[in-house]
Write a structure and sequence with these properties.
By secondary structure, the protein is an alpha/beta fold. The chain contains 7 helices and 34 strands. The protein binds alpha-D-glucopyranuronic acid (GCU). Alpha-D-glucopyranuronic acid binds next to loops.
């Protein structure tokens, strides 16, 4: 499914939730998909796991079936729900029935998935609706009318989270490869012609200082219909600003500009959101939208015309106490609540697009967001197919969240090894991102090979990104924290510089002298030395995103005493207890907030 068919803002549409209890079959050998000759089963094959295994006569043989005793909750990963699936990577078949009222004339129905990790094959009543790859972005398939039954529609999703060298991410990552239907599932019901996607934002081309001075702001908008809209009109409303206007439509896209006065701009200090309504063909979509301008000015990052310093917190989409993927509003409130306690004003969502609860809450709570696709470490940069897969995820990420004021940076990857093939691959992603959205900054987390003398930031990819973002671990992966005292930093680009990762491991509750690795004191010392070093960073130093806010699961971390399958670089441990380093960073952020008050 191409991203242009993605339906956005599904919460604002008529829908039936398919969340809840689903039945499942674990199928490590893909028996439900392939015959014993390992050829794909035919559609009508009764042994295919997408077919309802009913027997019409007692002599019939059936060797698969869905049963309430084998149930999983959706949304949710399977690893945290079934002990035997903790480490499981492979295929799991999910099945549930649902009823659906008969559609009125012209109405359409779509199956929508917030995310399924990694490869999803979707079947309804024995027919295949489609396949999607990518574990962290949404997709939807239209349900052919003739396929719909009033009752007991038999829905099956084959989910396979096996890692492969040719996928995005590839085989080697430092996070838990949670599998399953990890985000909401719903049936969307739409009119025959409907608004598929839209974008309403402050026109990035305007001189924001001038607009503020003249109290005259230009908001630009576009609406993409699912098909030729024919005649009719779209009504755009911003009730709080007493703004209402009808726009005649023709073709499958509408573009408009609005001039507004008294517009309160969105910022972390004042995360102002407006209700914006788009009505067309009997359907009204409403969204909470903030208006702000983000740009680089020389080697500074400016928000609404003023320099901003990014006080970051990095997070994985995980709830450590339950060792599971985060998916709900409450989960987002917990993670962003911790970031607020740290006095962070920026979130780096690592290393894949997080769920919409998180980005919408970031809008409401006033966080500046870095959102990233999982082009991570050693992707196969020589493959056009892999590039295409990355581009699809990039477009899906941008399409879903292009109306989120909080998102200021699209990241096309993390710590990708320098080579001409890689740089060409990454540049192609940067160009794609800019072609999709010229109103935000585009970056990637670059790597530096640190040393106690001069650290030279000259990754060729920095020539194409809007800001230069580097991951550095001077004092953890390189030497001890005191090495920061002599470290110098040189950047080859006259661009804003942010440290997109820096951090040290500490086992929560383990205390010792500061030179003892894994102690909270070592991690505390690490940040004390880093923060002192930040005072000496090059002029364009515009922010830091410590790695990481809270400990997270990783099968790569196997020190029996200090790690036990956890990456321990959190400044909060897996039980939610703050480590000593939390206070060090919080103090630094309070000082930076005061020093860079806007
Ligand atoms: C890397 C990487 C992270 C990883 C971290 C670490 O920089 O980007 O995904 O978890 O370092 O080593 O802890």
């Amino acid at each position: 499914m191409a991203a242009e068919n993605l339906i956005i803002n599904t919460d604002s549409r008529e829908s039936i939730s398919l969340n809840g209890t689903w039945q499942y079959i674990v199928d490590p050998y893909d028996t439900g998909f392939y015959t014993y000759r390992f050829t794909e089963r035919s559609e009508g094959d009764p042994e295919a796991y997408w077919n309802n295994p009913v027997t019409k006569h007692r002599s019939e043989r059936r060797e698969h079936g869905y049963h309430p005793s084998n149930s999983l909750q959706v949304p949710g990963d399977w690893n945290s729900q079934k002990k035997e699936l903790t480490y499981y990577e492979g295929s799991v078949w999910y099945q549930r029935d649902f009823d659906l009222r008969s559609l009125k004339k012209g109405e359409r129905a779509f199956l929508y998935f917030g995310a399924v990790n990694y490869e999803a094959h979707v079947y309804l009543n024995g027919k295949k609706l489609g396949m999607h790859k990518g574990g962290f972005t949404p997709f939807n398939f239209e349900i052919p009318k003739e396929l719909i039954k009033k009752e007991d529609n038999f829905l099956v999703v084959k989910v396979d989270n096996k890692r492969h060298p040719q996928e995005v991410p590839t085989v080697n990552v430092d996070w838990w490869n949670y599998g399953g239907i990890t985000r909401d599932v719903k049936v969307l019901i739409t009119p025959d012609k409907f608004i598929q996607q839209y974008n309403v934002q402050l026109d990035p081309a305007q001189d924001i200082a001038e607009s503020i001075a003249q109290d005259r702001f230009v908001v630009t908008g576009s609406v993409d219909f699912n098909r030729d809209a024919g005649k009719g009109s779209v009504t755009v409303k911003i009730p709080e600003l007493d703004f209402t206007r009808d726009y005649a439509v023709s073709g499958d896209r509408l573009e408009f500009d609005i001039e507004l006065a008294d517009l309160e701009l969105w910022s972390p200090e004042d995360p102002k959101l407006y209700n914006v309504e788009l009505a067309y063909n009997g359907e009204t979509l409403s969204d909470r939208i903030g208006f702000r301008k983000i740009e680089t000015v020389g080697n500074e990052i400016h928000l609404n015309g003023e320099r901003v310093f990014l006080r970051g917190a990095t997070i994985h989409e995980e709830i450590p106490q339950d060792v599971r993927r985060a998916y709900s509003k409450e989960d987002a409130e917990q993670l962003l609540g911790w970031a607020k306690e740290l006095n962070a004003n920026m979130l780096r969502l690592a290393h894949y697009p997080h769920n919409e609860e998180i980005t919408r809450l970031a809008d409401a709570m006033g966080f500046l967001v870095w959102s990233e696709i999982p082009v991570y470490w050693t992707i196969d940069f020589s493959s056009d197919e892999v590039l295409e897969k990355a581009k699809v995820q990039l477009e899906e990420m941008i399409t879903r969240d292009r109306n989120r004021a909080s998102i200021i940076i699209w990241s096309v990857g993390n710590e990708t090894p320098v080579s001409p093939v890689r740089t060409a691959f990454m540049k192609s992603l940067i160009d794609k991102a800019k072609s999709l959205d010229d109103s935000r900054l585009v970056s990637a987390a670059l790597e530096v090979h640190y040393n106690p003398e001069t650290n030279h930031i000259n990754d060729p990819l920095g020539a194409y990104t809007d800001i230069v973002s580097v991951n550095e671990y001077l004092g953890w992966y390189g030497g001890t924290p005191d090495m920061c005292r002599t470290a110098q930093w040189e950047v080859d680009y006259d661009k804003p510089l942010i440290i997109s990762e820096t951090g040290a491991g500490a086992k929560g509750g383990f205390h010792a002298d500061r030179e003892t690795r894994w102690s909270e004191e070592y991690q505390e010392w690490y940040y004390q030395e880093q923060i002192a070093m930040f005072e000496r960073m090059p002029e364009g130093f515009s922010g830091v995103a410590p790695w990481i806010l809270v400990d997270f699961r990783s099968p790569k971390r196997n020190h029996p005493e200090y790690q036990e399958g956890w990456n321990r670089k959190g400044i909060i441990d897996e039980k939610g207890n703050k480590k000593k380093a939390f206070a060090v960073l919080n103090k630094y952020y309070d000082e930076m907030e005061a020093a860079t008050a806007r």
